[in-house]
Automatic annotation (TrEMBL):
Coiled coil: none
SMART domains tied to this protein: CA
Gene Ontology molecular-function annotations: calcium ion binding
Protein name in UniProt: Protocadherin
Species the sequence originates in: Echinococcus granulosus
An individual GO BP term: homophilic cell adhesion via plasma membrane adhesion molecules
Keywords on record: Calcium, Cell adhesion, Glycoprotein, Membrane, Signal, Transmembrane, Transmembrane helix
Signal peptide: 1-26
Any one Pfam family match given in the protein's UniProt record, by short name: Cadherin_2
Amino acid sequence: MPSIFITSIATFTVTLLLLHAAFTDAQKTSVAFVINEELPIGERVGSLTEKLALDITSRSEVNFVPLIDLRLVNFNRTSGLITVRQRIDRESLCKETGACCPGRSVIPPPVSTFHDVLLPHLSDVQYPRCAIKMLVMDQRPQTPLSQQSQEHLLIQVVIYVNDLNDNPPAWSPDRLELEIPEHTVIGRKFQLPEAADPDEGPENTVQSYRLIPSDPHDHESTVRGLASDAFKLSSELIERSPGAPYKFALGLKVEADLDREKQSAYYFLLIATDGGSPQLTGSLSVIIRITDINDQTPYFRQTNPSVEILENTAVGTQIYTAVAMDDDPSDANRLEYRMGSTASAEVQRLFSIDSRIGSVVVSGDIDYESAPILPNSDSKDPLFSDDYGYLIPIEVTDQAHIAETKLRVHVLNTNDNPPTISIQSPLQRSISKGEFYIHEDAPVGTLVATITMSDADEKTGSERGFPNRASIPYCSTTNTFFTVQPLHSAMRNLFKLVTSKPLDHETKSTHGVMIVCHDAGQPVLSTKQYLTVRLEDVNDSPPVFEKAVYYARISEGLPVHTPILKIHASDADSGEAAEVRYRFVSSGRQMDYDSMVLLDEKSGQIRSGAVFDRESIKSINFTVEAVDCASGNGTSCGGRVNTATTEVIVLIEDINDCPPEFEHQSYEFTIEEGHVSKVPVSGRNFTLTFVQ
């Protein structure tokens, strides 16, 4: 029967409860939302910033970092707004491990292996049993940190999903054939299966059953027999637990003597009605075939059989053999085994029974992670059972009588699933997945990413069936510039990737980081994920001149703009931070360098700004300064500018451009007679001697 979508609420409401839990080891907050299933895509669920009562200043600094992948909802990291991303169907969520707990008599708030520690005591609060869970880290700079652990504020967000009555009760299969011996004792009951309703109990699940006669032609083309008052439905409510579907003991009670020669078959419809508004119904076609009688009923040698199998047990493996006895010698060799009528569709898919020898064989892939909870026969409340497996009803018949036993199959877990890794980061991301940017001057211990490791082998709240357990799961990296540390002391599956050494863009601008996470199973399985961390350059390197002092020569008399020399300074930074400009620096001497020498601020070329005359000036000394990040934008410099200086000495070379000149027109000297030759007479820059 197709599903019919029915909504009994005219408008949907979103109720948010803000719950705080104080712990000694960290800062944690729990936030709960309650919504109806089947909300439109894009519908608002709620806002963390509003419900955390953040003021306007705090809201401008909000930076929420989700720690798990979000499939069903959208989450805005800057506003904390949560909206519906995909269809939210409670019944689909119930199929996911740990999301819902249908059929249990006591239902606590949904929790997970990772988040149990964050939930406050909620025993007095009534919540829907189905929930979507998120874990968010608040990275605001002013977020108060625990004085002991110095850990960020963690917010557990639980979105509880209200059920709508959109599924009718149903049987799988929807046809049941019973064989009842003729002349069966009046008052004997034959068990009938309950209908399944994936909606939430008890209101939207089965409330009552009734049995009505059916037209034989609705069941098969050629039949003999009509419904009569020979049978009556026995329906007894055996379990009524808050928040859980009602449990019924259904039986077909014989009300009159059955005579196969008079009527060989009876036809009924078993109708189940739920408690929704409006009510939905489902039906099971019941065909009762009357068989010939014999004296003895077969019986099983074991009354409560039980076996344990590993989840990777191969298809075709025989796991159990049912042995039945019959005290009637003529029937001993006619016994046939079969699956009981109450077997679920999943049991029928995974197991088969050899009709001749009664062997139970695996016919499908057994998976511990998808196995249902196996009710504990020793516990009054199946909620506290941590066994997972299947109940297989086995029937044996001698063609007249039927006996039944139930085989309990306990499925044991094997570590057959490697862990999965979810990485979130507060850093700027590139277009490529798994690529992040971080400033090279980030201090040691800077958060690069958070790592959430999950393992399908670890069912919520269950330790049984996974006996080979290592100590704890862990993650690591071989890149020595980074390290993986536990994110939170109370949560063993959450980690953080932080810097462990000072980073330098000039030495290495890109780091490849391989994250390896190991699970807690035995043998240990691991998963790898590769990240690329690119360093953003900061202006931390000053320019460097090729020489501390530059010497140059230029002859006097050369024209203006004659090249003298070219200076150069390099900068180890990159991009805008490495762009260098040159300028004169005043040394306190009163000299107009702009009129004597010209400096190209981009190339560092120095040219003459005048025609030099060595007879007027012999040399020029000046200081040149190199300034980095000089393009004027400053977007990558962060307001930091570095400089360096060098001395430039320009020597003016003389050329023979002046004839000799006497200081006086005439010179007079006095010398006594009788001097020998070569006696100096007079002269300042020459020697005048007397020669005989």
